[in-house]
Amino acid sequence: MDILRIATAGSVDDGKSTLIGRLLYDSKSIFTDQLEAVERTSVQRGDDYTDLALLTDGLRAEREQGITIDVAYRYFSTPRRKFIIADTPGHIQYTRNMVTGASTADLAIILVDARKGLLEQSRRHATIVSMLRVPHVVLAINKMDLVDWSEEVYEEIRREFVDFAARLDFTDVTVIPLSALKGDNVVARSEHMDWYQGASLMHHLENVYIASDRNLIDIRFPVQYVIRPQNGRGDYRGLAGQIIGGVLRPGDDVIVLPSGMPSTVKAIDTADGEVEAAYPPMSVVVRLDDEIDISRGDMISRPNNQPEAMQDIDAMICWMDSAPSPSGPSTPSSTRPARRARWSRRSSTSSTSTR
Question: pTM for the complete prediction?
Answer without folding.
Answer: 0.73
